[in-house]
Amino acid sequence: MGIGEKEEEMEKEQEGNVAKQWSDTKTGMGSDGQEHDVTQVHQEAVNVDEHNDAEEEDEGNTSSLPLPSRPGLALNTLHVTDVLEGLRALPDCSIDCVITSSPYNKRGLQRTVTGLRDVPKQKPFGCWHKRINYDECSDDLDEDKYQEQQIEVLNELHRVLKEDGTVWMNHKARRAGFKEHMPTDFILKSKLNLYGHVVWNLKRSVNQHVGFLTPVHEYLYQLTKTAAPPAFFKKRLPMEFRSSVWTIKPERVKGHPCPFPFQLAENCILASTANRNAIVLDCYAGSGTTLLAAKKLQRNFIGIDASAKYQRIFQHRYQAMFNESPPTKHQMSVSSHPNTHRGRKRRKS
After folding, report:
1. CB of 174 closer than 8 Å to CB of 109
2. I need a surface site. Which of 179, 182, 282, 306 has the fewest CB within 10 A?
3. pLDDT in tens, 70-80
4. Would you say residue 6 lies in a domain?
């Protein structure tokens, strides 16, 4: 066989492989040789196309949303489940705005960096020793494991976020081993784009160590799905919150060590959502401040937290604030919606 004939035979073989891969995709045949159910994914794509064609459809009609490719989670509910399990149940491109704050793992960082497990009588310079009890969430993970977990959570948030959505993530600089450790150490390793940040001035701190300046601020990172500008409504914010420094005193909620201030959650919702059908997610919901702020502003919400105790606290707060019991079931679950927060494709200018 000549060289030309060999090349022709190889080309035919490649074409045959491509044709087989396309056939396997249509019939649900995976690379492992096993059949997989792709009907639901196909139906989702059909529904998305049909929805995009209906440009004049009323935004308030949520019954026309395309079918989810994942089970979804009920709207306006705090779900008691592991953070990653909860996020994996959400469809792609279904969330308008995320506001959350993961455990800081200060104890775990100290132990990883210094090797100290127990609190010594003489505190070494620059270390954090107070154990924070988040009920079901640990503040004492090995730092490498903690960062891997946070990157995985951020990547799931990237998947569920709409194209022009925003993730507002609260975190802080942590001290251990004579060094400050920044949240951007792991945030920048995720798929999310660091669009900006807010300095949250708490005006006070429990850490009064004489060896360094008293830390009275934390960070609120503004993360987006792509490098394109997100939906942002600066003029909806009160004048005192239109700069990159927000002065808001911490609040107390009985039974939770460090709840969000209501104003902080409210600012993020106002800045990143425009309509009442927007869906706000908090994947470390705690006592539910983000969810309560969303309810007050007439947005839909989804809460995820591993603690049944915090769910009960949220339910009591909801009852006290709105004089009604929070819904335990909902007819509609969040559906995949791969367009913008307005439910339509962004128009080209």
Report:
1. yes
2. 179
3. 778 999 999 99
4. no
For residue 48, which of 66, 63, 72 has the smallest C-alpha distance? 66
Determine contact, residues 253/320, Cβ cutoff 8 Å: no
Which pTM does this prediction carry? 0.73
On the CB side of 107, how many CA atoms lie within 13 Å of its CA? 15
**Residue 282 in contact with residue 311, Cβ under 8 Å?**
no
Displacement of CA 188 from its chain's centroid (Å): 15
Residue 290 structural domain:
72-322
Q: Does the pLDDT of residue 2 top 80, yes or no?
A: no
pLDDT of residue 163: 97
Q: Is 297 helix (H, G, I), strand (E, B) or coil?
A: coil
Question: Is residue 4 included in any domain, yes or no?
Answer: no
pLDDT in tens, 112-128: 888 775 544 445 544 44
The crossing angle, in degrees rounded to 10, of helices 143-160 and 106-114 is 140
| Residue 9, helix vs strand vs coil | helix
- Is there a domain that residue 7 lies in? no
What DSSP designation does 175 have? E
Number of structural domains (the chain) is: 1
d(CA 291, CA 307) in angstroms, rounded, equals 15
Nearest CA to 67 among 96, 95, 43, 37? 43
pLDDT in tens, 28-52: 343 344 443 333 333 333 333 333 3
Within-domain flag for 176: yes
Q: Are 225 and 193 in contact (CB under 8 A)?
A: yes
